[in-house]
Amino acid sequence: MAGKLLSLLPPALLAAAGLAGLLLLCVPTRDVREPPSLKYGIVLDAGSSHTSMFVYKWPADKENDTGIVGQHSSCDVRGGGISSYADNPSGAGQSLVECLEQALRDVPRERHAGTPLYLGATAGMRLLHLTSPEASAKVLAAVTHTLTQYPFDFRGARILSGQDEGVFGWVTANYLLENFIKYSWAGRWFRPRKGTLGAMDLGGASTQLTFEVASPAEDPANEVQLRLYGQQYRVYTHSFLCYGRDQVLQRLLASVLQTRRPHPCWPRGYSTHVLLRDVYASPCTEAQRPQTFNSSDRVGLSGGGDPAFCRSLVSGLFNLSSCPFSRCSFNGVFQPPVAGDFIAFSAFFYTVDFLRTVMGLPVATLQQLEDAAVTVCSQTWSELLARAPAAEAHLPNYCPMAMFVQQLLSLGYRFDEHAFSRVTFQKKAGDTAVGWALGYMLNLTNMIPADPPGLRKTTAFSSWVALLLLFTALLLAALVLLLCKARPAKPPSAI
Ligand SMILES: *[C@@H]1O[C@H](CO)[C@@H](O)[C@H](O)[C@H]1NC(C)=O
Ligand SMILES: *[C@@H]1O[C@H](CO)[C@@H](O)[C@H](O)[C@H]1NC(C)=O
Ligand SMILES: *[C@@H]1O[C@H](CO)[C@@H](O)[C@H](O)[C@H]1NC(C)=O
Ligand SMILES: *[C@@H]1O[C@H](CO)[C@@H](O)[C@H](O)[C@H]1NC(C)=O
């Protein structure tokens, strides 16, 4: 009996070894390893109305994996956009200090020197550059001076083109939603079938429309080709300068001043004084600027609460009369038909969110959006104030913005009800704000490689599979041996 047990020992040991190997392979390595150290990057989004700082983070060992970079923290710079410091450039640099001090605390000290820092300025600075290239250069020099005082790896302050702004917003949205490439549970990189998502951004001074298209753009200025993770993308993009929220509001104001009537887009019961210098300072209101006016004059203006007249003023912003291409959006700009799913962020989101949450109105269709705009435009000042007392400064502008968003999408970009049903209004994906800033950093740090991710993961994966097979074979062989040895001798067969 003892001899029999002894003979079972080797196969039993073999089985135990196989089992142990299998178990070890199945323990997730993540649990035993130290947490990976993080890397950081900082982007200052210098918009026309204000500057935001975003601190991003990602695991140091996974630089080229999609969807890995996320937002660590953010900070809103107090005061206006850097372009508002044209008369006092050093003030533009000074305005950033509070957020930069926060960045010193948000990023661990030992990572400061290795953290890239970028400042990108958008349409506000594009407009300032149009009116005074010297003034915009002085503002950029002033912010550069401030940014170089910090221990981060400062990589420059620039004005983005409208094209870059549109494309980087598109890259950000699709990166965060893992539409370019995904690492599957089976250990392979694959391209998700759902395709990419179009992006619509509405800033203070410009608005961008960007989406993937199948055929070449008739106007080369509207086409960008990108190679991301080994795949080629053909993207249509256009940025409309002077079609951002603040510039649209100033242009409507300038039109109203010509009519000498109450402002049809402001609520009845609201009145204020308008400083002519503010209205006519921008190149966007040049066409409506009177020959002579006293720039320090203030003009009293009251609200008229007239949705129909407001709509006609807003639709006057879109010139649909001529198109040198087979099809256009407006102002003679080429645009193929919108296709696929879209995400609409920044002021698109804030406008629709107000209609939904404060006004309690449905905005699932273009018709509902139009009805909601008419409803907001029919509210009196006291009715609006009662709904959202905390938002007083912005309240008069929700009617014109709702009208503008509705007209821009339907009249301008030619969304029909079907296409509109595929638009989501969203400002974040997970914890990360959707905007051009993340895409800009990913591009400048080369974190989206042109080629598919390396064999790093697949090599590890195939050796893992080989080991798995080896230990399984070992275990099976041992079990077979055990069975053979343990089986009692066959009883003699009865004939
Ligand atoms: C990421 O890709 C870049 C360029 O393709 C390469 O130089 C870098 O070493 C990669 N980083 C990692 C962590 O794989
Ligand atoms: C402009 O208006 C200010 C105050 O409204 C007045 O003091 C000034 O004299 C005016 N200038 C001209 C050129 O009319
Ligand atoms: C619209 O654009 C055309 C062509 O650029 C121009 O001739 C026309 O004056 C514009 N109309 C308006 C109302 O601005
Ligand atoms: C991203 O960076 C590369 C160079 O690293 C450049 O060739 C490419 O044009 C950039 N993409 C965009 C959209 O600007």
UniProtKB/TrEMBL annotation:
Its cofactor is Ca(2+); Mg(2+). It is found in: Membrane. It is a multi-pass membrane protein. One of its GO terms (molecular function) is GDP phosphatase activity. Keywords: ATP-binding, Calcium, Disulfide bond, Glycoprotein, Hydrolase, Magnesium, Membrane, Nucleotide-binding, Transmembrane, Transmembrane helix. Gene3D superfamilies: 3.30.420.40, Exopolyphosphatase. Domain 2. The lineage of its organism: Eukaryota, Metazoa, Chordata, Craniata, Vertebrata. Its EC number is 3.6.1.5. The active site is at 165 (proton acceptor). Pfam families: GDA1_CD39 (PF01150). Belongs to the GDA1/CD39 NTPase family. PROSITE patterns: GDA1_CD39_NTPASE (PS01238). One of its GO terms (cellular component) is plasma membrane. Its main location: membrane. This is apyrase. The chain crosses the membrane at residues 461-484. ATP binds at residues 204-208. The keyword tRNA-binding does not apply.
